[in-house]
Design goal:
Layout: H1 2-6, H2 10-25, E1 38-40, E2 43-51, E3 70-75, H3 81-84, E4 96-99, H4 101-104, H5 109-114, E5 117-121, H6 133-137, E6 145-149, H7 157-160, E7 170-173, H8 178-181, E8 191-193
Parallel strand pairs: 2-3, 3-4, 4-5, 5-6, 6-7, 7-8
Antiparallel strand pairs: 1-2
Length: about 190
């Protein structure tokens, strides 16, 4: 931690990280996407989890969850990923979350209401669940940036009905049909079709 804070010996800090980072991540290490981990002040601050088997899912009582400021959570639909987000108390520092709608459906409203940045990853083919159900049940007072990731976002009507849309400072939509989304540009400060 001291080496990281002072920056006195970046080579040594890098060597220690390489040797010990999986231990420092605790149960987050099992599903952590290579290159996604960010440590600051000696603790993990950001990680992307891709859980495709039960062992990849972080433990709900993992102390490392408390220091996360940014989390990407994706994986198999047969795994308890929504339950991981079911308690805001597990994530007191979380400000940025990326997940598919079926994962967000299990999120504690108090957790969603603290987020400043939310990335909704496009539902998988055949997933008939409403993509914005979690957003509809939360007030999202702190939300500044909403990013709809994955080029399959084709219909803006469900998002357009959300009252929180007017409070956003940025809306990023990855779509093959940007012309359908341009009507929302007057409701937010920035719309970036991709």
């Amino acid at each position: 931690m001291q080496l990281q804070r002072t920056g006195a010996d970046p080579e040594r800090a890098a060597a220690l990280f390489k040797k010990h980072h999986r231990h420092w991540l605790g149960s987050l290490a099992r599903g952590a996407v290579k290159g996604s981990v960010v440590f600051r002040d000696g603790v993990v601050r950001a990680v992307a989890i891709a859980a495709w088997k039960p062992a990849d899912v972080p433990l709900a009582d993992a102390p490392e969850l408390a220091t996360l400021e940014a989390l990407t959570l994706d994986g198999g639909t047969d795994l308890p990923l929504p339950e991981l987000l079911s308690s805001a108390a597990r994530f007191p520092s979380l400000k940025s979350l990326a997940a598919r709608p079926w994962v967000l459906a299990g999120a504690d409203v108090a957790l969603l209401d603290r987020l400043e940045r939310l990335q909704v990853i496009a539902p998988r083919l055949g997933d008939a669940r409403p993509p914005f159900a979690a957003l509809e049940r939360a007030g999202l007072p702190a939300l500044k940036v909403l990013h709809l990731a994955g080029s399959s976002w084709s219909e803006p009507s469900a998002l357009a009905r959300l009252p929180q849309l007017g409070r956003l400072s940025e809306l990023v939509v990855e779509t093959r049909h940007p012309e359908r989304w341009l009507g929302l540009a007057v409701r937010v400060r920035l719309l970036e079709p991709s």
